[in-house]
Design goal:
With 270 residues, the protein is of the alpha/beta class. It has a single domain, classed as 3-Layer(aba) Sandwich (Rossmann fold). Helices cover 44% and strands 16% of the residues. The protein contains ten helices and seven strands. It has a seven-stranded parallel sheet, with helices on both faces. 45% of the residues are buried. The structure holds nicotinamide-adenine-dinucleotide (NAD).
């Protein structure tokens, strides 16, 4: 069912790798709600070719951009405005990658070149996107930028490794740039802190499927799906959330405020 929530809105969607990606679901729902957008991903991710299927389905163009390259991002942001015929109303930053996680390097024995890459790809890329959009006046007044985060920014989840530090930085950039962009032209910037979700990035974390089950039993509403996350993103791009900015918004079925659940206590019953 569509309500035309994003009718007439133009945007850029980063991070649709395959049909499990949160960004993929956002693209499908944003399209159904009337948005027009450009899809983008790292050149290496394009090789899989799946994004072209999404582009066809959502009647959108694809522009490759490595989110760590200022040159690629500047080109993307200017081309997207040309293709869409005006300034941008929304941007989804759905990007995360840690070489330390991928290669099984423990947090206490981190490879610092990889650590820098984790920060650059997963957090500083948001600063770069915002800075280029800000300085080139690419966003419409009352536009909206959403990035995806995880509760490891606030609480310790040992196997999340250096991604926890990246998410803390991502949320800090959201607050600080949110202030600047709000002052400049009422652009809002928020993060959504999503439940663990079975995607390519998610399942790269050690012990992920056990962790999904744990979170499911700890959350009164159960884990939020990728589709539910996409619905939430779309509300934040819509005009119904105009005064929400600089926030980290938990979208986790209540996990973040649950100390312990009866289901988890029962597992310790003698
Ligand atoms: N899956 C989860 O459990 C979960 C939970 C909370 C938050 N998140 C966050 O959601 C976001 C999306 O992840 P997902 O779970 O949909 O997984 P995903 O693997 O489908 O998406 C991650 C995306 O990042 C892209 N990417 C990596 N390096 C890039 C670069 N240099 N330039 C441009 N793009 C690059 C990948 O190509 C991919 O499309 C990430 O920020 C992730 O940390 C995921």
């Amino acid at each position: 069912m569509s309500n035309g929530l994003l009718k007439g809105k133009r945007g850029i969607i980063f991070g649709a790798l395959n049909n499990m990606s949160i960004a993929w679901k956002v693209a499908e729902i944003a399209h159904a709600e009337g948005a027009e957008f450009v899809l983008t991903n790292a050149p290496i991710a394009m090789r899989m070719g799946e994004i072209n299927e999404l582009a066809e389905k959502t009647n959108s163009k694809v522009i490759a951009a490595d989110a760590t390259s200022e040159e690629d991002l500047a080109n993307l942001i200017s081309q997207a405005q040309e293709i869409l015929g005006g300034k941008l109303d929304f941007i989804l930053h759905s990007i995360g990658m840690s070489p330390n996680v991928r290669k099984g390097k423990h947090y206490t024995d981190t490879n610092y070149d990889w650590y820098h890459k984790t920060m650059d790809i997963s957090a500083i890329s948001l600063h770069k996107v915002l800075s280029i959009a800000y300085n080139s006046n690419a966003m419409s007044d009352w536009g909206s930028v959403v990035a995806l985060s995880y509760i490891a920014a606030q609480r310790v989840f040992p196997d999340y490794n250096d991604m926890a530090d990246a998410k803390a930085l991502l949320e800090s950039i959201t607050r600080n740039f949110g202030y600047q962009f709000g002052k400049k032209n009422k652009v809002r910037v928020n993060t959504i802190s999503q439940s663990p979700t079975m995607t390519t990035a998610g399942s790269g974390v050690k012990g992920f499927s056990e962790f999904v089950s744990f979170a499911e039993e700890m959350s009164p509403l159960g884990n939020a799906s990728a589709e539910a996350c996409a619905n939430y993103c779309v509300t934040l791009f819509s005009d119904f959330t105009k005064y929400v900015t600089m926030q980290n918004l938990f979208h986790d079925g209540g996990f973040s405020y649950t100390g312990v659940s009866q289901e988890v206590i029962n597992k310790f019953a003698k």
